[in-house]
Amino acid sequence: MPSALPLGDPAPSDGLLPGQALQGASDRAFGLYVHIPFCAVRCGYCDFNTYTATELGGGASQDAYAGTAVAEVDFAGRVLKASGLPERRLGTVFFGGGTPTLLPAGDLVRILAAAIDAWGLEPGAEVTTEANPDSVTPESLQVLADAGFTRVSFGMQSAVPHVLRVLDRTHTPSRVPQVVQWAREAGLAVSLDLIYGTPGESLEDWRYSLETALSYAPDHISAYALIIEDGTKLAAQIRRGEVPGIDDDDHAAKYELADELISAAGLSWYEVSNWARTPEQACRHNLAYWRGDDWWGIGPGAHSHVGGVRWWNVKHPSAYAARLGSGASPAAGRETLDAETRNVERVMLEARLVTGLAIPSLGGLGDTGRHAVAGLIADGLVEPAEAFKSRLVLTLKGRLLADAVVRRILPD
Fold first, then answer.
1. Average pLDDT of each block of 10 consecutive residues along the chain (412 residues)?
2. DSSP code string of 39-102
3. Which of 95, 181, 237, 350 has its CA at 20 to 30 Å from residue 287's CA atom?
4. Are 50 and 155 in contact (CB under 8 A)?
5. Chain center to CA of 298
6. Positive or negative CA dihedral for 252, 254, 256, 259?
7. CB-based contacts of 306, cutoff 8 Å, min separation 6
8. Helix 248-264 and helix 203-215, axial crossing angle in degrees, nearest 10
């Protein structure tokens, strides 16, 4: 089953936000995340809040979902206005899941149109949808592009059939170049998502997947280490000894290979797991998460953040639809972060970016971080030239040990 929601305070049924959310709002970007909780098949490694079509009915069905999501868009617009937030147009919109493109393209367009009606789009706004390679057609991609979508992120994961089988992916490798071509013909930028460290994947398998993905000349690549989540099919298979477990040294070798090949192909890292052909082709929506900007999350289990106030919706699509149908907030809980917690989270997230952290800003957390910089340079974990400019930027070795770097610069 999907992972549990975090603990928090009860969320008010009217959804109104406290005064803290207003502070500095005009200086922060505003985005929208739309969760589409449907998949054709549940992948063995996935613990996201997703459901197959046969699991749901009524107001939670795929057919009814667009209307329910639009209802939350309308609710969000009223709440932000009633809470006193300044009017801001959307800089980014991201449809994730699940598999958003299991819904008809017209449904995704309907949700986007409602968001544009509620807030409008900034000039040059980024509008992304995730997609499985077997869930789109030339016609559906053109419909999305004509409605204002600007990029598509395909879940390629691997180019090796036996790796895809372990991951329970439903597409064939030959499908990927087709959909990349269709997206380009529609005028959409293309990102490819890859996963490394799948049980049974050799280093040569991973090299082949990287070289194959790069041969399609994507604008953006994400490469994530496979994490085994409790409660998933893959976790049970490893526990029973049916497939080998995860090896940290294998992950490190595959990350180093990814950075070598992706960089040689002309893409540059801008976040530990993400590379873009140009700075403009970095995923601006995800950058907003890492920089602590504001976003509203639409959908069951979706998380939102405005000015240090964070909340999350009820998980089950039926409960989500019922809450909105009664006019109440779908939020299950929320928390208001204090200044220290926000600083800690800022360090954890910004340290992962190529722009790094301002070293003087570490003083807000005590002397630990500033005093740790010399040791991090000596250990080859941060770039010396950037440190002399008062920026803490990870080296390749530092990216491999990003969590350890963060632990060294945060106070005990």
1. 69 94 94 91 59 63 92 98 96 95 97 98 98 96 98 97 88 95 98 94 97 98 83 67 76 97 98 98 97 96 96 94 96 94 92 94 73 93 96 97 93 74
2. ESS--TT--SS-EEGGG--GGGSHHHHHHHHHHHHHHHHHHHHHTTPPP--EEEEEEEES-GGG
3. 181
4. no
5. 14
6. negative
7. 17, 21, 25, 80, 85, 294, 295, 296
8. 30
Tokens describing residue 161:
């059939």
Q: Which two tokens stand for residue 127?
A: 């509008």
Backbone angles phi, psi at 406, to 5 degrees: -60, -40
CB 293 within 8 A of CB 304: no
pLDDT tens profile 75-116: 999 999 999 999 999 999 999 988 999 999 999 999 999 999
Cα-based angle 381, 382, 387 (whole degrees, multiple of 5): 155
DSSP 412: -
- Nearest C-alpha neighbor of 35 from the set 66, 79, 10: 66
The type of residue at 174 is S
Residue type, 369: G
What the block records as the tokens of 137 is 């057609």
Entry pTM: 0.93
Alpha helices (H) along 230-367: 233-239, 248-264, 284-290, 317-325, 339-350
The rounded distance, in Å, linking the Cα atoms of 72 and 158 is 35
User: Which tokens hold the place of 30?
Assistant: 């505003």
Listed in order, strand segments (DSSP E) in 76-211 are 90-97, 121-131, 151-157, 189-196
